[in-house]
Amino acid sequence: MTDAPDDQREDIEPAEPVTENTAPADVAPDGGRSTAPAEPDLEELLAEYDAARSQPTEQQQPFDVDALMERDNAAARTEQMTGLEQREAAIERALLQQQEAERVKFETESFIKFAAEGQAELADKHLPPNYLENYLLAAAAKDSRVLWLWNHRNNPQLSPQTRAQIAGQLRAVRDRGVAEARHLPDPIATADRDAVVAAMRGASGPVGPEPAPAFGHMTDKELNAYSRRQFGFEAI
User: Is 0.70 surpassed by the pTM of this model?
Assistant: First the structure.
């Protein structure tokens, strides 16, 4: 190998000595740029910690007695309103129950009076006093239109003419019950007739057999008479 000319050696700078772990901080061992973040300084960490502590939290809010009193008052008002609403609901339920009880009482009395008006026409039939009530209840159970007529007889949403027609149809149902009752046999007259028939049958019925004679107490004359009557000869 031959040495390079002097004019060429002047352009060559001496290389820096290479030692282990002498790579620049921003150069990765493989020759690329390092991506690892720089470690924070201790003073920066302390400053960040102090800043975090200085921020107010919910527990670190300044003491304010007015705010605390207002919070308690708001909770008390909410509880009071809840209690009032519950009492109002209880009162409303009680009123509804009372109104329903009064309605049922009115309907019951009206029905009894309506049936009694027709029952009065059957006074001579000696029928049970609630005969027509049972008839109307049976009619309503058999025909739902009868029940509808009764429930809407006083409906204020219907015109007066319609309510009058409903009342007329209800009376027609009652009159039909009265007419059917007139064709029923009178229970008292029937009982009297049955008693008379039984008495007449008892009076004209066949005579039963005579009781056995007491032969030990008969005289000879009585025994012969009995023997002649029963057997055609005298026993003694």
Answer: no
